[in-house]
Amino acid sequence: MPKDLQELPRLDDSLTYLYAECCRIEQEEFSIALVDENGRTPVPVASLSVLMLGPGTTVTHAAMRALAENGCTVLWTGQDGVRMYAAGTGETRKAYRLEHQARLVSDEESRTEVAWRMYELRFGERLDRSGSLSTVRGAEGVRMKQLYRETARQYGVPWGGRKYDLNNWDKSDPLNKALSAANSCLYGLCHAAIVSGGYSTGLGFLHAGKQLSFVYDIADLFKAETTIPTAFLVVGESFHDIESRARQTCRRLFREERLIQKILPTIDALLDVPDPDPRLRGVDTKIDRPTPLWEKLWETAEAR
Hints:
The chain contains ten helices and nine strands.
């Protein structure tokens, strides 16, 4: 738990995040404090956009209210934020990123354009813009098979293809277990960044039809430099305790590479998010509730 809050890392120029574990979150005046065996650390929640709660944390009702009233996103995560379990309120109650994402994914032309950009960002190769989403998916599949083969040769690990059965996990080979464990860490980190930025996890461009489609889209952008070499490295060293070692190695790599600070700026650039109206910047201190609207509708209905 950091003591010097001036040194907190940033997701980008407008988003700060704090990760806490093994402590109690309490209200302190109009803000919060983190309490552990070392004492009490006040947190200026008004300037905090994302609070990530790791294992061993408890939070009071009053603290949650203070966080919500200050527009701070609360994420319940695994250790070091590598898994994402649940999320509270959005970044600053602003929806401009979500609206932009929805516009792009709802139009076939713009959706395909984003898919092309994803491919080019991952592989450094420009595709023929006359192709469809299916063309992009096919090209991606070919390049990923090539990447797995090249990584297998690099680490001297036999590779038989990406195969796993969620209903029969024990039948997976060690390398596929390592890949799945490493990817789950990356998905959690991407999930946290996506939610903190106000995007939807379900509105994917290459992936579709799942609650985490956009998480899979964004995670794919970083696998070649993170989870894939990690899995092959871990298996190449030993078959002992593969899943745990894959997760631990990912944690260290994500921290060293400051990955969580790269994800949101990457998404903004990928979707070409326009600079928001000045009125959309900062925290919305007015908490809009639907109650008055519904009351008016019921009054109108009763009058009829």
